[in-house]
């Protein structure tokens, strides 16, 4: 395939996952990133390796790329020549890409530009919507199921062994003929279901792991109490999600079981720290904790365990000073929930504060 491909964001997903699928299709790629140190390292080393730990898959050496910092005029040139631009910068950073992409449109011919987001979030492309004022620009989305983790002080990546990238075909004229990329017709539902199942359960392991003082992510997921919470929460949210998205309950249960299995897999050496990051985003109304709680409300269900996860996330935010400054943080983050649920969260916070110094926190 001779289409030019750019990946904005040469981090864990951009470098370790999106480009793996593209490199395995023998396609060249241009990375663009704001991190000058990372770009310098990519240009100096000219290759990096993706390892799969003990999952039984051979490592892959990746050397199919050029790499430019956003300040380099060659970044704009590469964008002007690109047919496909994948992003993997974090949903909240997408708006920052608008000036760069707009700039590249000035040097572009009539050819269409297809931007495919590779971000967690239920509608990440909305952040780029103003680009579609230019009729050449088309926005699509993909959903990232694969976990990729940077190795310390290295370009190399440790990855889950999964080459499966569903993407929204509705906004593209042709399928993406790259390894592992799968056209999805009913994409919006899949993306929401993924965030409310996988990322909800991921947040459960992560924030419960945090309050229990566990640093290794799979260890957190395998903790006896956390495991019990994960299964109870899955049972409640599955019922609501199956109803909301008209999915067979058995199919949704299997979906959540795959998520729990993945987050408990000790071969994927991930950290609680990576999974708790950006708590302000993760506590958003359409995100992994509040949206499933709202679905529970809609279908007259409840989960004390998920409320405790919400409290643990807030507690993490308070402790790390990473919440939005608001005089009423309960109203700010939980204003959509019923007052009785907000009161439960407040009680949970008191419990967490009371047991702050205990050797090992027991989940209530
Ligand atoms: N790592 C995973 O396992 C995983 C799994 C599922 C989804 N995701 C999603 O993938 C996306 C990327 O996550 P990641 O883990 O690769 O993060 P990361 O921090 O490893 O990489 C993000 C990269 O984007 C770059 N960046 C940020 N803002 C930029 C800007 N304005 N212009 C250019 N470059 C910019 C950063 O410098 C960094 O190199 C996120 O939306 C995340 O939710 C990641
Ligand atoms: O990448 P974030 O910060 O949105 O979320 C952290 C994890 O939930 C996430 O990376 C998952 O591991 C991933 O989405 C795979 O399901």
Molecular structure report:
It is a single chain. This protein is α/β, with parallel strands linked by helices and 364 residues long. It is built from 14 helices and 12 strands. The chain folds into 2 domains: 5-185, 3-Layer(aba) Sandwich (Rossmann fold); 188-354, N-(1-d-carboxylethyl)-l-norvaline Dehydrogenase, domain 2 (Orthogonal Bundle), CATH 1.10.1040.10. The protein has helices at residues 12-23, 36-45, 73-81, 98-105, 187-211, 217-222, 224-244, 249-263, 272-276, 279-282, 290-298, 304-320, 329-334, 339-354, and strands spanning 5-8, 29-33, 48-51, 60-62, 65-69, 84-87, 113-117, 137-141, 148-150, 157-159, 165-168, 181-184. The strands form 3 sheets. Strands 5-2-1-6-7-8 form a 6-stranded parallel β-sheet, with helices on both faces. It has a 4-stranded mixed β-sheet with strand order 4-3-10-9, covered by helices on one side. The longest helix has 25 residues, at 187-211. The termini are far apart. The model has no long low-confidence stretch (mean pLDDT 96). The chain binds nicotinamide-adenine-dinucleotide and D-Mannitol-1-phosphate (44H).
């Amino acid at each position: 395939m001779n289409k030019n491909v750019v990946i904005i964001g040469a981090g864990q997903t951009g470098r370790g996952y999106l480009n793996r699928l593209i490199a395995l299709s023998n396609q060249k790629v241009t990375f663009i990133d704001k991190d000058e140190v990372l770009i310098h390292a990519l240009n100096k080393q000219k290759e990096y390796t993706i390892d799969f730990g003990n999952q039984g898959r051979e490592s892959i050496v990746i050397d199919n790329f050029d790499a430019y910092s956003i300040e380099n005029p060659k970044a704009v040139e590469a964008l002007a020549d690109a047919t496909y631009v994948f992003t993997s910068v974090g949903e909240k950073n997408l708006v920052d890409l608008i000036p760069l992409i707009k700039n590249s449109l000035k040097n572009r011919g009539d050819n269409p530009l297809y931007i495919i987001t590779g971000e967690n979030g239920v509608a990440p492309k909305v952040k780029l919507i103003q680009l579609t004022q230019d009729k050449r620009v088309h926005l699509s989305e993909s959903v990232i199921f694969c976990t990729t983790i940077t190795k310390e002080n290295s370009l190399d990546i440790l990855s889950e062994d999964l080459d499966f990238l569903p993407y929204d075909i509705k906004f593209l004229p042709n399928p993406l003929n790259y390894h592992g990329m799968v056209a999805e017709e009913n994409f919006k539902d899949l993306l929401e279901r993924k965030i409310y199942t996988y990322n909800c359960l991921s947040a459960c392991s992560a924030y419960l792991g945090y309050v229990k003082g566990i640093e290794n992510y799979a260890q957190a997921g395998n903790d006896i109490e956390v495991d019990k919470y994960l299964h109870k929460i899955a049972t409640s949210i599955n019922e609501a999600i199956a109803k909301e998205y008209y999915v067979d309950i058995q199919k949704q249960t299997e979906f959540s079981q795959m998520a729990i299995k993945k987050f408990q897999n000790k071969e994927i050496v991930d950290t609680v720290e990576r999974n708790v990051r950006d708590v302000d985003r993760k506590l958003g109304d359409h995100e992994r904790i509040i949206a499933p709680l709202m679905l529970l409300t809609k279908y007259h269900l409840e989960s004390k365990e998920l409320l405790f996860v919400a409290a643990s996330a807030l507690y993490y935010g308070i402790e790390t000073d990473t919440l939005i400054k608001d005089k009423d943080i309960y109203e700010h983050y939980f204003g959509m929930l019923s007052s009785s649920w907000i009161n439960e969260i407040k009680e949970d916070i008191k419990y967490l504060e009371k047991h702050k110094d205990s050797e090992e926190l027991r989940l209530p």
